[in-house]
Amino acid sequence: MNSLPVDGVAPLAIGGAAVLVLAFVAIWWRRRGSSDRRQSKKAHEAAQQRDPPVEIGETYEFGITDFSEHHSGETNAVGKVEGFVLFVEDIPDGLSEGDIIEAKVLSFNEGRTSADARFVERR
Asked: Is Transmembrane included in the keywords of this UniProt record (predicted)?
């Protein structure tokens, strides 16, 4: 009779259960991510339908939410005015997320869903 020893059954059962748990977690995580992508797409489409809440040549005060690398290699501050994203160039050293700045809107990006701006001053 060739059967697994009793000591070998428990590790196999635990290993099988662990694989099942990981599979369920992976499926849940993937579905959750697709929901986030759908919400992001809906928000993007809604942004394309509305007029920007900013005007070219005007100056706005807002908080820095993030920093991004421009294709030129320059670091830009990122902030929002009424949910509308502004990418701010010519920022001085020492700024951090949460800092309040003023920036002048220079141009809209394709689709008018964001704009480029130039740093004016720190508040």
From this structure: yes
Q: Where are the domains of the chain?
A: 1-49, 59-122
For 26-46, how does the pLDDT look when each residue is reduced to its tens digit (9 = 90+)? 787 777 766 677 777 777 677
Q: Name residues whose C-beta falls within 8 Å of residue 77's C-beta, 6 or more positions apart in sequence.
A: 64, 66, 67, 87, 88, 91, 95, 101, 103, 119
CATH top class, domain 59-122: mainly beta
Which run of H or of E encompasses 116?
Answer: strand 114-122
pLDDT at res. 21: 85
**Strand pairing partners for 69?**
75
